[in-house]
Amino acid sequence: MKLNSKLIVTVTISLWMLIGCGGTQSNSSTTQTAVAGVSIEAMDASSDNYKVLKLDGDKKLQVKLGNEEKDLYILVSNPSDTTLSATVNYNQKIVNGLKAIEKETHTNNALNLTTYVPRDIQNFNNRPLDLVSDKEKDSTVKKTYKTVSDTENVTQKEFYMELDSTGAKVDATARKVITNIQTPFGEKSLTIWVEDAAYGDGCSKVKCVNDDMVNALANKFLKDGSDNDIYDWVTTVFGEEWGIPSSSSLIEESNHISILLTDISQDNIASGGIIGYFHSKDNFTTNQYSGSNERIMFYIDSVMYANGTDSWDENDFWPQQVFSTLAHEFQHMIYFYQKNVKQGLQGTQTWINEMLSESTEDLVAVKMGVDGPRNVVSTRGDAGDTNNYNGRYPLFNINNRLSPKSWDNTLENYSTVSSFGAYLMRNYGGAELLHNIVNNNLLNEEALMYAVHKDANGKSKTFDDLIHEWGVAVLLSKRDDISVDSGKLYNAGDYISSNFNGINYNLGSINFFNYSSKPTLATTMGQVSPKSNYYYKVGENLKGDIDVDISDTAGLNVSVVVVK
């Protein structure tokens, strides 16, 4: 076999059943014993619902499972920046006899949704000020600007869809204007624009937007009162979406937000495609980008939003997807201002920006009354029912060997960072963790670790620790009795709550084994990608003593995981 690294991991596994032998519980993780003259450590899990042993080197283990059926896994994590190759040898006859190792098969039942934002827009949003000439980057600008408002007899407008004004355009009409809503950041206003071709009975699209839909969207995003809309829930965590600009290439300070409902890509498809996006081009003046609409705004696909059952209801699947998308894109909008403009930081890696937005959807799903990435009804704090075929996690389960730091703008990438962000929030501070990632003067992994270290449970953690414990948490997610301070929590059997700036956020529990595509569990060792996990299944529904020989582990993080 051709290897990509000189480092090889060999896991030699021998399995047999010992009738009536379960061992005794030890206060330590392992005890020394001897079998046929070979020194073996005993991992006694006979009285435990779950147990994790992180190895400190090569081990010959006798895992004592007791007389109740338990699952036995090995998690291998690669902390290096190069791909490592590994091999496994085992007694195939005994394995087949016990029926302990079976190749997992999967069907991708995840909806055929594309990413929220086209790749070129995503790249632009992550490095917008890099594209501005140095003479335009004036961090000393402290002007007071006139507030942009759509209340000044602006009811119809031609919107530019591309960086250049010669590109695609959409004619739209303001169908809803809300003004003077009190927020912690002062008065805010909102305009809902609808593409003319997408509005009213008999429009030219397969699904048409009406006033009820416009009102529902406005009400979900911004309305009177506190702790009752997407604006409050997201800005409380991350901060304000716009303020005094740091460059004359940027538009004036504004308290006004616009949402354009348009048939994105003009594909006239109601059940798949790009749901919506934020494009920071519109935060620049037309002198910088002629295709700027010079306003703080989102783009939402009108055809998907108008897609309901026999009679459209805001609780239908596609309207719920749009509400989640608004929360997702609002994080991107705020991140652009807080990191790129306010602090002048450039070079954000896409994975962490998307992880923050996926985590925002998860964080506010219960408050919005939507199923969210879990695809569990928001009134249920538990992990939901089995055979769950929707949400982000079936696709994550199929692709659980991906690193969150790798990014190819695929649905698999979104599912991976969604899972990683969900893990981080449930273990290291919830809403406050997200706040601390954005509100510092660091980027990417450094910003994340700054936030984790501010949490009491995360002070000594490294990024590689997080990757490894994330994988262990996936395997333990079938249990709802995991210690809240273990750093391995997904499933508490109920909501996992965090309070930040006076607002309470409830995160629902997650059991990855509840999804129709269960976690991919390998039965042979293969390549372990950088900063990623490899899930190895020794066997499920096992009893008695299992001998496991794990060798050549240098450079890898390895844990043995037992789950009842």
Can you walk me through this structure?
The chain has 564 residues and is of the alpha+beta class. It has three domains: 134 residues, no CATH class; 235 residues, no CATH class; 170 residues, no CATH class. It contains twelve helices and 18 strands. The chain is elongated.
If strands are numbered along the chain, what order do they take across the biggest sheet?
Answer: 2-3-5-17-1-7
Shape: elongated
The residue ranges in which pLDDT falls below 50 over 5 or more consecutive positions are 1-29, 33-38, 86-114, 133-148
Q: Fraction of residues in helices?
A: 10-25%
User: SS-based structural class?
Assistant: alpha+beta
Ends apart, CA distance between termini: 36 Å
Main sheet makeup: 6 strands, mixed
The count of helical stretches stands at 12
Q: Which oligomeric form is depicted?
A: single chain
Radius of gyration from the alpha-carbon trace, in angstroms: 26 Å
Q: pLDDT average, as an integer?
A: 86
Order of helices and strands: EEEEEEEHHEEEHHEEEHHHHHHHHEEEEE
Strand content: 15-25%
> How many structural domains does the protein architecture include?
3
Number-wise, the strands total 18
Secondary-structure map with pairings?
Elements: E1 8-15, E2 30-35, E3 38-44, E4 50-54, E5 59-64, E6 70-78, E7 85-90, H1 92-98, H2 119-126, E8 156-160, E9 169-183, E10 186-195, H3 211-221, H4 230-238, E11 256-262, E12 276-277, E13 296-301, H5 302-305, H6 317-341, H7 350-368, H8 393-398, H9 411-427, H10 431-438, H11 444-454, H12 463-476, E14 496-500, E15 503-507, E16 532-542, E17 545-551, E18 557-563
